[in-house]
Structures are given as structure tokens and as C-alpha cells.
Specification:
With 101 residues, the protein is α+β, with helices and mostly antiparallel strands. The chain is built from three helices and four strands, in the order βαβαβαβ. It has a single domain, classed as Alpha-Beta Plaits (2-Layer Sandwich).
């Protein structure tokens, strides 16, 4: 099992929490933890001019996912939640060693 599991961190808009969790669970993620946060960038005219409007209410979702399921999860985040576009969300994994569940 060494090296087969990762922690997946997802930071997105709070209003998408339920949809994000459902999509991640459908693509192999388990053992979820949810933390609410607030973004530090305030919307202003310069950001708006570049099409970047800050969503201050954030959700931080952490979960476990098998490495073989990571590509599917990232594809869903990019396709369904537009994480591949600026100002939508961020996701990354951290490998977990010696964890079995």
C-alpha cells in the first residue's frame, strides 16, 4: 500500500461544497473533512477590469484518494467546476506513506 494513497486538498467556493463533495466521492475520494474560510483578496475595480471577481467565502475540503483515482478527480474539478480557469478554485495532492484504511 505504500505510496498508493494521497491527501487531496480542494479550496473552492463555499456555495459549491455539497457538489464538490459529491463529485469527489463519486470519483474515489473518501474520509472527508470540511473547513470554512474566507479569502483574503477583496474585490476592487482593478480585479474587475481583468475579469477577476473575488469570492470571499471559501471551503477547504480534505480527503483521502487512491493515486489511481487522482486523474479522474482532477478531470471532474476542471470540467465541472472550471478549476482550470483563474479565480475558481485550487486542488492539489500530498502523498501519504504507510497509511492503510
Amino acid at each position: 500500500m505504500n505510496g498508493e494513497i494521497s491527501f487531496l486538498y480542494v479550496i473552492g467556493e463555499r456555495k459549491q461544497k455539497e457538489n464538490l463533495i459529491s463529485a469527489l466521492a463519486a470519483n474515489g475520494a473518501t474520509v472527508f473533512s470540511v473547513i470554512y474560510g474566507r479569502g483574503f483578496v477583496k474585490s476592487n475595480e482593478i480585479l474587475k477590469a481583468f475579469g477577476l471577481v473575488s469570492e470571499e467565502d471559501k471551503v477547504v475540503i480534505t480527503c483521502l484518494i487512491k493515486k489511481i483515482d487522482c486523474d479522474k478527480a482532477f478531470a471532474v474539478l476542471n470540467e465541472d467546476f472550471k478549476f482550470d480557469r483563474p479565480n475558481t478554485g485550487i486542488a492539489f495532492t500530498v502523498p501519504v506513506e504507510n497509511l492503510k484504511y
